[in-house]
Amino acid sequence: MTAVATEGVPVRAAARRQSILEIDRVTKFYTSRDAGSAEPKRITALSSITASVGRGEFIALLGPSGCGKTTLLRIAAGLTGWDEGSIAIAGARVNGPRKDACMVFQHFGLLPWRTVLSNVVFPLELDGVPAQSRREQAMDLLKLVGLEKYTEHFPHELSGGMQQRVGIARALMRKPLLLFMDEPFGALDAQTRERLQEDFLKIWSTIGTTVLFVTHSIDEALVMSDRIFVFTPSPGRIKAIVESPLAGERIGGDPRAHPAYGPSRHELRGMLSGSEP
Ligand SMILES: Nc1ncnc2c1ncn2[C@@H]1O[C@H](COP(=O)(O)OP(=O)(O)O)[C@@H](O)[C@H]1O
Ligand SMILES: [Mg+2]
């Protein structure tokens, strides 16, 4: 496993590919007020984050709760501002949401009054794509996620795993350059989660979108990603960038049976608990 100190970025894997996302010394503060205190308190959610993501890469953002993973994803998706540094997608400074940078949420974010099909077509409806064409594209994606028989169901009639398949199909409708996934499988039971991990990796390998995937599961980061950005808690920093030794085994194989799986888990656990430099 190759860990690269963040001071040393850009990183080998990113250098091999055309860069799609450049994060340069990004810092983000929030202000909040404790109960009973008159003085607002400044929280450093992210401190000087620098990283480069190559086109088509699958990146895991790994760290404990509160280390700024969601904040970084929201900044990159143009949903939240930042205070210092710069961030660019395909060479253009991020200054708001982009149609080609889409989000998959932990709690699915489906519209409960719309059927599966009409949830999936929704982004193209907003874009004014003709009904026939958006329907055809939605049907292709619903086949890809295995839900072609559920087009007329409503979200509450589906399991959590199926609802997240709808969320994934919807996020892919605009053929995104970048897909941001914020703990997308965090609300699912262990078995459903593993099944979705496998299925999503197959989907990713066919569409080739760049993915930033937030997780606090070491296992999930290792089996899903090319590289893992390991965060430290408050203030959130990238402590190390690690290349997953399982990246070549992800699809069709059994990455957990790989001899590097146990040692890599151990090493990452050490990094997260602070017992590694
Ligand atoms: N809107 C907000 N206002 C004030 N503080 C916030 C806000 N959003 C997040 N924070 C704080 O910023 C830090 C990072 O939060 P977050 O990005 O949600 O972390 P993570 O996704 O890793 O759990 C936490 O200390 C959190 O309490
Ligand atoms: Mg979060």
Brief account:
By secondary structure, this protein is of the alpha/beta class. It has helices spanning 12-16, 69-76, 116-126, 131-144, 160-172, 190-207, 218-224, 261-273, and strands at 2-5, 19-32, 41-54, 58-62, 84-89, 92-93, 101-104, 178-182, 210-215, 227-232, 237-243. It has a single domain (2-100, 176-273), classed as P-loop containing nucleotide triphosphate hydrolases (Rossmann fold, 3-Layer(aba) Sandwich).
Task: Tally the beta strands.
Answer: 11
Please state the second-level CATH architecture.
Answer: 3-Layer(aba) Sandwich
CATH topology-level fold name: Rossmann fold
How far is it from the N-terminal to the C-terminal residue, by CA? 15 Å
Helicity range: 25-40%
Summed up, the helix count is 8
Order of helices and strands: EHEEEHEEEHHHEHEHEEH
Low-pLDDT runs of 5+ residues are 5-15
The shape, in one word, is globular
The CATH class: Alpha Beta
Structural class: alpha/beta
The radius of gyration over CA amounts to: 19 Å
Number of domains: 1
Bound molecules: adenosine-5'-diphosphate, magnesium ion
